[in-house]
C-alpha cells in the first residue's frame, strides 16, 4: 500500500498531466499559476529552512542531496535535481553567502510544471523534499 503522500501526489499527477513537452528553463514558485500569492510562505518553509540547516556548509548539503538521489545541475553554487515523478523534476539550488548576504536556497520547477501538477501540489512537494534533505542520514 502506498503512503498517503505518494497516493495523493499520484492522483494529482494523473488528474493534471497532459503530456506537454518539458520546458527548457527552471522557474520559481512565483511563476506557477497563482503562485505569487503563496510565494513568501513557500520560501519560508522550503528555501529558508534549508538555509537555516545548511548555511554555508555546502559539503553537508551535497551529501544529503546525493543520499536522496539528487543529480548535480549547473545553477547557483551547488544545485541538485530530483525526479519526483515522470516529467516532474524539482531543483534545489544554493547560492553561497558572503560578507553582505547569507547563503540562500530556492526550490525551482521545470517551466512545464503546470502541465503535470497543480500549484498546491508543488507546495507540498517542495515541503517534502525540504524535510527529506534536512533529515537525511549523516546530516547533523
Q: Tell me the helix content.
A: 25-40%
Please work out how many helical segments DSSP would assign.
Answer: 5
Shape: globular
What's the oligomerization state?
single chain
Distance between the termini: 31 Å
> In CATH terms, what is the fold-level topology of one domain?
TATA-Binding Protein
The H-and-E topology, N to C, reads as HEHHHEEEEH
Strand order of the largest sheet: 1-5-4-3-2
User: Total number of β-strand segments?
Assistant: 5
* Biggest pleated sheet: 5 strands, antiparallel
Please report the first level of CATH classification, the CATH class of one domain: Alpha Beta
What is the CA-atom radius of gyration, in angstroms? 15 Å
What integer is the average pLDDT? 94
The structural class is alpha+beta
Q: Give me the CATH architecture of one domain, please.
A: 2-Layer Sandwich
% residues in beta strands: 15-25%
- Poorly predicted regions are none
Amino acid at each position: 500500500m502506498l503512503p498517503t503522500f505518494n497516493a495523493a501526489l499520484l492522483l494529482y499527477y494523473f488528474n493534471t498531466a497532459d503530456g506537454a513537452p518539458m520546458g527548457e528553463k527552471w522557474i520559481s514558485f512565483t511563476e506557477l499559476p497563482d503562485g505569487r500569492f503563496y510565494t513568501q510562505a513557500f520560501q519560508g518553509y522550503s528555501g529558508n529552512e534549508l538555509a537555516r540547516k545548511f548555511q554555508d556548509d555546502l559539503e553537508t548539503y551535497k551529501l544529503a542531496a546525493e543520499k536522496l538521489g539528487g543529480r548535480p545541475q549547473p545553477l547557483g553554487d551547488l544545485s541538485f535535481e530530483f525526479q519526483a515523478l515522470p516529467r516532474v523534476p524539482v531543483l534545489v539550488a544554493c547560492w553561497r553567502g558572503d560578507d553582505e548576504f547569507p547563503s540562500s536556497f530556492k526550490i525551482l520547477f521545470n517551466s512545464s510544471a503546470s502541465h503535470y501538477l497543480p500549484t498546491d501540489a508543488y507546495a507540498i512537494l517542495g515541503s517534502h523534499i525540504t524535510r527529506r534533505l534536512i533529515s537525511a542520514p549523516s546530516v547533523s
